[in-house]
Amino acid sequence: MLLKKVLKSAAKIKPSVSTITPEPDRRRQFDVLVVGAGPAGSTAAYTMAKAGLDVALFERAAPGEKTAGGTAIYTLPTREILPDLLETAPLERILTDYRYMALTADSAVTAAFKSARYAQSPFNRVSVHRAKFDKWLAGKAVDAGAVLFANHKVDALLKDHDKIIGLEVGPPVNKQFFADVVILAEGVNALLAERAGLVPGIKTENVALYVKETMALPGHLIEERFNLQPGQGAAIGILGESTANFMGSAALYTNKDTIGLNVGTYVANFVTGSFNPHDLIVKIKQHPLLAPLFTGTETLEYCAQMIPEGGYEAIPPLVHPGCLIAGDAAGLVNGVQGLNLAMLSGQLAGKTLIAAKHKNDFSQRQLSLYKKLLDESYVLQNLRANRHIHRFFAARPWIPEAEIAVINEIAYQVGMIYPMPNGAKRRYIWQKAASIQPVWKLAADFLQALWVMK
């Protein structure tokens, strides 16, 4: 069953204002306007409001309403932003397992790691439900003094010559708001920034579309299937035989699978009718080795989300006259890290504007402190070090399909017992592997991968 969220017409959306002070119905001027109450935007609003800045946070829905499913938070970097994370955030569970599967049509090579140390403070990863977490984080911004304008869809940025001076909220609100600076944390599809000429149009090769299905699974079944102890969780990464990267997570009482693929590949295959995003999630659920894991489940959520995957070279200009760009809109995703990087960029944007407010200087030169702080952080340092990865995979579309096929074939043949000497068997396995992918090509890809994945 495909679950869908009913879309409301503009006339039926009820705008609301949330603040610790009386509702500012007639207010139009703030120090900073933040567009997007996701992890980046709410963190920026929280950072600035806590320092005494007059901040307005705009969200086209209610915080968390347009998100679904769960994700993992890396606690060490996130607690540097929110020290009370473990005590106050709506966390789901501690994740203690890593499991990876390299799949072909009928086989799987599995690698797993589990450590009791992951279950000890300060922990490594914890899972959260995005709808609950985003609502909580926006609430922290409000508690710190920010004004939250929920169900306020921003239609355009206001300019005075080249400087961003405010924003315009569309129906049914139809109001303009003004500030010294606007922070855009509108997500990967940064339409406001694009319409204002701040960033180029999104390229299909620089973004992936992930489809997620969340299913309920009785506790005793998931403990049995994943060898989990009560209260523990697991994370599973799956590589499939197609060019897709199959990613998933499993945790106590729920079983979730997320499948992602470059949007450019979706577009190419949609034209030929080869497959669509839903076909991929069905494919993984029907894999002979995975299908038993999904037996007895009930679908709770079905959603899709775009994620920037262009890497360092796809990061747009982040500092503009009167405007900073943060989070997914800035392309700040590095492999499995996304949410905590978005929050860090929001914090650094907030720190930049705190300094600007103290100096009463909102010039682009002063706002460039944001880029300097990002450059000095592990966010851009990691992205810069791995800047060749995107181009590496784009130039080698056979990866990981060929490598996965070779790994599975070798594993299969090693497990087979033939009426032949071991020497002959090793030569036979070598020939079978080489027939899938030439050895020189495998070696070259491996060495090149080591160089780009610094």
Computed Rg = 24 Å
By CATH, the superfamily of the largest domain comes out as FAD/NAD(P)-binding domain
Structural class category? alpha+beta
| Mean pLDDT across every amino acid position | 80
- What's the number of domains? 3
The DSSP helix count reads 16
Give a quick precis of the structure:
This protein folds into 3 domains: 10-68 and 130-204 and 311-385, FAD/NAD(P)-binding domain (3-Layer(bba) Sandwich); 93-122 and 206-308, D-Amino Acid Oxidase, Chain A, domain 2 (2-Layer Sandwich), CATH 3.30.9; 397-452, no CATH class. It is built from 16 helices and 18 strands. It has helices spanning 39-50, 75-79, 85-88, 130-144, 191-195, 219-226, 263-272, 277-285, 339-359, 364-367, 369-376, 378-385, 389-394, 401-415, 422-436, 439-452; strands spanning 16-18, 29-35, 55-59, 70-74, 91-103, 108-114, 125-129, 147-150, 154-160, 163-169, 175-184, 207-216, 232-239, 245-251, 254-262, 298-308, 319-320, 323-325.
Report on the architecture of this protein:
With 454 residues, this protein is α+β, with helices and mostly antiparallel strands. The chain has three domains: 10-68 and 130-204 and 311-385, FAD/NAD(P)-binding domain (3-Layer(bba) Sandwich), CATH 3.50.50; 93-122 and 206-308, D-Amino Acid Oxidase, Chain A, domain 2; 397-452, no CATH class. It is 35% helix and 27% strand. It contains 16 helices and 18 strands. The strands form two sheets. Strands 1, 2, 3, 8, 9, 10, 11, 17 and 18 form a nine-stranded mixed beta sheet that branches. Strands 4, 5, 6, 7, 12, 13, 14, 15 and 16 form a nine-stranded mixed beta sheet that branches. Strand 10 and strand 11 (175-184) form a beta hairpin. Helix 9 crosses helix 11 (369-376). Mean pLDDT is 80; it is low at 1-12 and 230-257.
